[in-house]
Design brief:
The structure holds 2 protein chains of 2 kinds. By secondary structure, chain A is mainly alpha-helical. Chain A is 57% helix and 2% strand. Chain A contains 37 helices and 7 strands. Chain A is extended and about 105 Å long. By secondary structure, chain B is α+β, with helices and mostly antiparallel strands. The chains are: A mainly alpha, B alpha+beta. Chain A: This is Nucleolar complex-associated protein 3.
């Protein structure tokens, strides 16, 4: 700070304190404000203890150097101050009081600076601060701090925020300083908590002045532009005034606390995109006041509704009215408030419209109240959803304010995922699905996709999944398959596999039972009694609300049908489509659920696709075409591995394809490169394909196996060591599996006549037994010791035949 | 010993193509030596060029056989493949069928293959093509002509014929005299 800065002791904690790491955040922007001692929580009040835990200083660690002692001797005042500190007072958790007091809580999503120093700063700075300094802080100063756009609030919440900034701003400079003082201070240190500045003691003369800690304050005049960016305007009254550009961040002040923490993130985006509105100086205050009043209104209504939903359902309308406000902030806040309110008050059952008969019946007051409430709730909910829908569909608005769209989308997704059972679920899904249909994947679509995945995974009865899948397939069809593959990937999360598997076994039992049951002779009375008991049982079952297996099965079957129809369509018509990898993955995952009859068609389609794909390679690794081919091959073999074993097909074409791809792979130096988290690397796909082809199958022609072994031991000579490892292990397992392959390793008798043709692309014809695995000798000298041992063990198997 | 005329070559290759398809070129362009077909007493022999030169020094009446006999031409000019060609057919076969152990014996006696004995079959085998028949241990047993395509084979009864018998290794015992 200044040159007069002395080597003062700071009552700061050295980095080895055991305080929690969630400390005061640096940037002084709208974001989550974390108390140095409290952990982040939805309701900060709960987590704040009354007294902050103070770790005891360890006496052993204190190393007091001579210099320091000398310094202390000189500056006795400092020691005096420290002694007079009141530990109790310091450790009292002031923030709790503060949080209770303030109605506006601005949470900041900001980065954290290195924790220890910040923590220390909090304590020390408080002690150091003069009240005077606070008054100096005004708007312009705040702006001049760090470069963030978001500035702290100036009204109510300013105290907290200011503290943050001050501490943080000083932190960077003070880092080095602090570390020196650590040992000194340890003995005398405690863990003071943020105190209200007004209660701080006046600083000792030798301590660092607070003004030294603060970053250089640039006076308002300096930051104020000399020039006017806007021309003077003429007011209605005839006066001509100069216009000051209003900083957008001012509007950030005094944000209401909404339950969602991410409100603030959206507000941040909003800030950046908000247009500077030229305002007349006279109206500046009133706009803020207007914001403030709106927020208070929202908060009031929300809390009233939540207190007693049934009585105050009418207030939902007021919330909606607020949402129609012009101001973007208010709009977003209103939407989010509504979301929070609905999440709380929506009951756990689906409200069905009352029939005529029920309406005419006279009911008790309670029931009437409930019905009224339900009616209002439904109508308001519907209009709310309509509003959200309009916002999402509004193209013009989207350009102007993308964050509003995001907020609306988030509301929709939250409603769908948490209240899937409630009415209007179809409307919600329609909107979300239509948003997901964009080709250029954006955040909105991503959110929608994630919501759908959550819905799939939480769906117990299968009904919701069925609706969702119907809608999605329809949408994709209407868009002519020009959608992003994430949409298809969401299908992979459907819970179909586990549910339908024991289908075969169950049906047999039922059949046998059906045949054996004879019609028992019942007289009239017995029949009547049986009927009644059956009805009662049915009611019991309904009350239990257990999803019946039959219903689940039905839903799942329908869903499967739709999905596979869609997959087939893509396969048959659009073999060049970029959706192909996702489709193939889906097929492989769910193939065991469809009837064996379809396998024929499926294999045919796969073969056609395989042949139509191209053979180029790109960028040192398999090109998109080769990747698709590998996926095709893997899918085909997975199809045949489950139920398809009944089909004794020998997929010769696929073997030849893989044989060819292996050869090309030798030239791909990036064969282990994973293009993205979802996709496998080429080497992994090759290994998987080889495993499926040989290890899972019972009877593979020896010639073919031997040819593959020979080829990939040759090809692996050029590969990185992980691939080599995989290949050699595969070789070992195959040789172990089939004794005849031993001939490749032994050199005793001739197993075949003729010579080996290495460049032939057909594995059956290249006469592999005319050669041996000479490469093992090369692998014995590999740089990787694991490979060396593996090669050795293949050549001389432990059982030593 | 004379080389084949064009028509004879065409007929021969057509017949071979039914079993090995385009792999005929592997029969001719072998990496070690060039092989060729020669006709001797209506039988087609497959031998290397070196052997042709040696065999041509033996008189017509004294030459029994040279190389591998693939088959013979009938009086009307049709070509029949003999079981002696099995080795090469098996090596380059395009469509293969594996039969179960319980079906081997009956096939080796000269009967047709029924669906019940089918172990495995190459994908996409069309109707009326030549297939080579293997045992489950990948030992070539003979060859034949398919009665149905792979897809239709699923719907057949177990007693329906799927492959018509053409030649099998049992012939070495049965028709010892007529083979050569």
């Amino acid at each position: 700070m200044g040159s007069s800065k002395k080597n003062t002791k700071k009552t700061t904690k050295p980095p080895n304190n055991k305080k929690t790491t969630t400390t005061v955040t640096t940037t002084v922007k709208a974001g989550k404000k974390k108390n140095g001692t409290a952990t982040k929580s939805k309701n900060p009040l709960d987590n704040l203890p009354d007294y902050v835990q103070v770790p005891n200083a360890e006496e052993d660690n204190v190393d007091i150097s001579d210099e320091d002692l000398a310094f202390f001797a000189e500056n006795r005042d400092f020691g005096k101050f420290l002694k007079s500190m009141d530990s109790k007072e310091l450790t009292k958790n002031e923030n709790k009081k503060k949080m209770v007091a303030s109605t506006e809580k601005k949470k900041r999503a900001t980065q954290t600076i290195p924790d220890p120093t910040t923590a220390e700063l909090t304590s020390s700075d408080e002690d150091d601060y003069n009240d005077d300094d606070l008054e100096d802080f005004n708007q312009s100063d705040l702006e001049s701090l760090e470069d963030e756009e978001d500035l702290p609030s100036i009204n109510g919440g300013s105290d907290d925020d200011d503290e943050d900034e001050l501490m943080i701003s000083a932190s960077d400079d003070e880092n080095d300083l602090l570390l020196d003082e650590e040992d000194l201070l340890e003995a005398m240190e405690e863990e003071p908590v943020k105190k209200k500045r007004k209660q701080q003691e006046p600083n000792a003369s030798d301590e660092e002045m607070d003004y030294e800690l603060k970053p250089r304050k640039v006076a308002g005049e300096w930051t104020k532009k000399d020039y006017h960016s806007r021309l003077p305007i003429k007011l209605p009254g005839g006066k001509v005034t100069q216009v000051q550009p209003n900083f957008s961040d001012e509007e950030k002040s005094d944000q209401e606390e909404v339950e969602e923490e991410e409100v603030v993130e959206e507000e941040e985006e909003m800030d950046e995109s908000e247009i500077l509105v030229p305002e007349e100086p006279e109206r500046k205050l009133t706009k803020k006041e207007y914001l403030l009043s709106k927020k208070e209104e929202l908060a009031q209504t929300a809390s009233t509704i939540q207190e007693d939903p049934e009585a105050n359902a009418g207030l939902l309308k007021t919330l909606r009215k607020v949402a129609n406000d012009q101001n973007m902030t208010i709009k977003k806040l209103a939407l989010l408030t509504q979301l929070a309110v609905y999440k709380d008050i929506i009951p756990g059952y689906r409200i069905r419209p009352l029939t005529e008969k029920e309406e005419s019946v006279k009911v008790s007051k309670d029931v009437k109240r409930l019905r009224e409430f339900e009616k209002t709730l439904l109508s308001n909910y519907e209009s709310y959803i309509k509003d959200l829908d309009i916002i999402l569909k509004d193209k013009k608005g989207r350009e102007q304010d993308p964050s509003l769209v995001l907020v609306a989308m988030r509301c929709l997704c939250e409603l769908l995922t948490t209240k899937t059972h409630f009415n209007f679920r179809l409307n919600l899904m329609v909107t979300i699905v239509s948003r997901m249909s964009v080709v250029n994947w954006n955040e909105v679509a991503d959110m929608g996709c994630k919501a759908m995945i959550t819905v799939f995974e939480n769906d117990e009865s299968g009904r919701t999944s069925l609706d969702a899948v119907t809608m999605m397939t329809r949408m994709i069809k209407s868009k002519n398959y020009a959608v992003h593959e994430n949409v298809i990937n969401s299908f992979l999360h459907l819970r179909l596999r586990d549910e339908l598997a024991p289908l075969a076994s169950r049906s047999d039992d039922d059949e046998s039972r059906g045949k054996k049951r004879k019609k028992q002779f019942l007289n009239k009375k017995a029949r009547k009694a049986l009927k009644e008991t059956k009805e009662i049982e049915k009611e019991f079952k309904e009350a239990e609300a257990v999803v019946s297996k039959e219903e689940k099965e039905k839903n799942h079957t329908e869903t499967l049908k739709l999905m596979f129809a869609f997959y087939f369509r893509v396969l048959k018509k659009q073999s060049q489509s970029p959706l192909l990898p996702a489709v193939l993955q889906g097929l492989a995952k769910f193939a065991h659920l469809i009837s064996v009859d379809f396998f024929d068609d499926l294999l045919n389609a796969l073969k056609i696709v395989l042949e139509s794909l191209d053979h180029k390679s790109s960028g040192g690794t398999a090109g998109a075409g080769t990747r698709k081919r590998l996926l095709c091959i893997i899918t085909a073999f997975e199809l045949l591995s489950g139920q398809g074993e009944a089909l004794n097909y020998d997929l010769k074409a696929y073997y030849s394809e893989l044989y060819g791809i292996l050869y090309e792979a030798a030239f791909h130096y990036m064969v282990e490169d994973k293009p993205s988290l979802e996709h496998l690397s080429e080497s992994e796909m090759l290994t998987r394909g080889l495993e499926l082809m040989f290890l899972k199958k019972r009877q593979v022609p020896v010639n073919r196996m031997a040819a593959f072994i020979k080829r990939f031991s040759v090809v692996a000579l050029n590969m990185p060591s992980k691939t080599v490892m995989n290949c050699l292990q595969l070789v070992k397992r195959l040789i172990h599996k089939d004794r005849r392959l031993d001939a490749l390793v032994q050199s005793e008798d001739r197993a075949a006549s003729g010579i080996y043709m290495p460049y032939l692309q057909d594995p059956d014809l290249c006469n592999p037994f005319g050669t041996s695995l000479y490469e093992l000798f090369l692998y014995k000298d590999h740089y990787d010791p694991a490979i060396r041992t593996l090669a050795q063990s293949i050549q001389q198997p432990p059982e030593s035949a | 010993m004379r080389p084949l005329t064009n028509e004879e070559t065409t007929t021969l290759f057509e017949k071979l193509a039914k079993y090995i398809g385009s792999n005929i070129k592997h029969l001719i362009d072998r990496p070690d030596e060039t092989y060729c077909f020669r006709l001797h007493k209506d039988r087609v022999y497959y031998l290397s060029e070196k052997m042709v030169r040696v065999a041509s020094s033996i008189g017509r009446d004294h030459l029994g056989s040279a190389g591998v006999c693939f088959g013979k031409f009938t009086k009307t000019g049709k070509f029949t493949l003999h079981v002696t060609a099995l080795d090469y057919l098996a090596q380059y076969a395009k469509h293969k069928i594996w039969i179960k152990p319980n079906g081997e014996m009956t096939y080796l006696y000269g009967n047709n293959v029924v669906k019940a004995h089918l172990g495995r079959i190459t994908d996409d085998t069309p109707e009326h093509t030549g297939v080579v028949i293997y045992s489950m241990t990948d030992m070539p047993l003979g060859f034949g002509v398919t009665a149905r395509s792979t897809a239709e084979m699923k719907k057949l009864q177990p007693t329906d014929i799927i492959v018509f018998h053409q030649a099998d290794v049992g012939e070495y015992l049965r028709s010892e005299d007529t083979l050569l």
